[in-house]
Structure formats: structure tokens, C-alpha cells
Amino acid sequence: MSQSSQHYAVWPDGMVDQPNPLKMSPGVVSGDHLFITGMTGSAADGSMPADPKTQFQCAFDKLDAVFKAADLTFADVVEMTSYHIDIKSHFELFAQVRSQFVQDPYPAWTAVGVAELRRDGALVEISATARRKS
Question: What CATH code is carried by the domain that includes residue 123?
């Protein structure tokens, strides 16, 4: 984790040594908040699972890794946005997987159906904001 003042990037183990052609961080702490880049459901090896449930689980696992790298948990999430390909077909399954991660008090959540995502085969991309305890 590179750190300067109250604004710094958060890099979980395993993501640190990956190429970064898009020049973005998995997470950025700014003041009391952690902002997490949208995570798709790609597996650890970079492949995109065909199974929707596996994709959703992988996306939440990646969010969890960023939270842990910032010494936070899903209990600290205040806002979440999810972008879905074919939202009507997968929403209930996504909500079931999501319910295994989010904690009370539940975060604000917006779920948006989209035509496409940057990664081929991706069914979802999830971004989140968490508040660091003072």
C-alpha cells in the first residue's frame, strides 16, 4: 500500500504485481473513506468463469480482499453499485450471493442493467464505498 497523507492506493496481495495499463488502483483511501474500483467476477488466474454464481462469488471475494488490505470489512460498506448484464435473469442469484457478504446496517445499493462491460464474458461489475472508523 503506497501512502501519503490522507489519500493513498490500496493494493491487496496478489494484485500488487499485476500489470496496470489502465493506471488505476483497486481501492483508494481518501480521508475517512475507501473507494473501490468496479470488480468483475474473474477468477484469480484472470479467466472469466462461465457459471454466474461463481462470477458473483469471485467479484465479492475481490472486494473483500481490498477491504482487508485497508483493515476494513463488509460491515464498513456504506454504498454499493452493481452493473449487470441480463439483470433480470441473474438478479435473484446475485442477491443471494450478495446477502452472504453485506452486514447490518446494510449499505445503500443501486443495481443497474447495462448492455456490456469491459471484460468479455463478465456478467457483473461491483464498486463500493466504505467508511473507516475514526
Answer: 3.30.1330.40
